[in-house]
Specification:
Shape: globular
Strand content: under 5%
Number of domains: 1
Number of helices: 17
CATH class: Mainly Alpha
CATH topology: Growth Hormone, Chain: A
Radius of gyration: 20 Å
Order of helices and strands: HHHHHHHHHHHHHHHHH
Largest sheet: none
């Protein structure tokens, strides 16, 4: 198994596991915290919007750092985690002192987005450095398993803590997880950048490196198609995350533990899918697999939006996340397989930037949820993605040709 065979990748995975605990609990808790402060669906979405805007704006800098400091990507990962740890500790202290205000949560969301913009391009590029192209899809699935394993247990634990002891203790839990992630990152070994690539980057200014990245993304057909698909998916299906707390409490009529159960059961479906992918041979029809899994993810979310029954909603969210992980695994791998090594960090920063659209979409998702309902907002987003897939289906099937040329 890859985790047992590759020491460097195993250490990266352990660090990711603890940082994923922090992020999963943060996403869950911040929505509930904003509801507690404001009792407003709009502000729940708006806070995710500020987070998304910061992530979108700062991701190009994260890509620049990942390419500029090719041989020290593990250091970038550690620094970003340290920033996150400081943010959640500060919020925990404010909540415990009963001094927390909405603007504190907004600033924390922005700083956390900046840290994520640094960490994710470095971590994803480092994954390929450590495992190679032939094992990349398996490694990507294993990385996503880390996220989803934490998404099974962490929300239930955090939900129980919030109900029994209060919100501040959930943030102290995040602080501990971030500290363990930081210590794990410090033990990481990384491969060295080839001299030719290193010299090529060192002879360019930072601004030129960023501009070259933008030019490449917008002129390379395969990369452009993947980034546009990622933006659409993040804006209209993954954006359900920004108002899932509202869906749980206002539509399904459950408490914090019920909301946590939705997240955890969804993660069970995701892990089941990822274990299957990580143990499977690399798919050949990756473009078709990409389109089908995203389409089935959107259909499952559409059905979820129609359900007023909590047990049925649990089943549908598990099915939705199972298909979602197939999509996420393939798009993350393809984005690395179709680009040259010296561009990987910058291209991956565009993927990270697309994640910011999940938060930005929280602005209109929150507005729709406030004006109508969370169910209507989630269902409408799923329909948009299905229409986009129908229009661009043939273009997505061509992605395999570009990947094979690089391999």
């Amino acid at each position: 198994m890859l985790l047992l065979e590759n020491v460097g990748f195993r250490r990266l995975w352990i660090s990711s596991f603890f940082s994923d605990i922090m992020i999963v609990v943060y996403v869950m808790s911040s929505g509930l915290l904003v509801l507690e402060i404001t009792d407003s669906a709009f502000w729940v979405g708006a806070v995710f919007g500020f987070n998304g805007a910061a992530l979108t704006i700062c991701s190009s800098i994260g890509g620049l750092l990942a390419d500029r400091f090719y041989g020290r990507r593990h250091t970038l990962v550690a620094v970003a985690i340290l920033i996150d740890m400081a943010v959640v500790l500060f919020i925990a202290i404010l909540i415990a002192a009963n001094n927390i205000l909405l603007w504190h949560v907004i600033i924390g969301a922005v700083i956390s987005a900046i840290a994520l913009a640094i960490r994710i391009p470095a971590r994803n590029a480092l994954t390929l450095d450590l495992v190679g192209k032939k094992r990349l899809i398996n490694a990507t699935a294993i990385n996503l398993v880390s996220w989803q394993i934490t998404a099974i247990g962490a929300p239930l634990i955090a939900g129980s803590i919030i109900v029994k002891y209060g919100m501040s203790w959930a943030y102290f839990l995040m602080t501990i997880a971030a500290g363990l992630a930081f210590l794990s990152a410090l033990t990481l070994n990384t491969s060295h950048i080839p001299d030719s690539v290193s010299d090529k980057l060192e002879n360019k200014g930072s601004f030129r490196i960023i501009v070259d990245g933008f030019k490449y993304v917008f002129t390379a057909p395969a990369v452009r198609s993947l980034i546009l698909l990622a933006i659409v998916a993040e804006s209209f299906v993954w954006s359900h995350e920004s108002i899932l707390a509202v869906m749980a409490t206002k539509v399904l009529n459950v408490d914090a533990f019920g909301y946590a159960s939705l997240l955890s059961v969804g993660a069970v479906g995701a892990v089941s899918s990822l274990i299957f992918i990580s143990l499977s041979k690399q798919a050949t029809a990756r473009g078709l697999f990409l389109a089908l899994t995203l389409g089935l993810f959107a259909i499952s979310l559409l059905l979820f939006s129609f359900s007023p029954w909590f047990p049925v909603s649990l089943i549908l969210i598990a099915i939705a996340y199972a298909f979602a992980m197939g999509y996420e695994t393939i798009i993350s791998a393809l984005l690395q397989l179709v680009v040259p090594d010296e561009m990987r960090g910058r291209v991956l920063s565009f993927q990270t930037s697309s994640w910011g659209f999940t938060g930005l979409a929280g602005l209109f998702m929150g507005a729709i949820a406030g004006g109508f309902s969370a169910a209507i907002a989630i269902g409408a987003g799923a329909i948009v993605v299905l229409v986009y897939l129908v229009i661009n289906f043939r273009q997505l099937l061509k992605l395999d040709v570009f990947a094979e040329e690089r391999e």
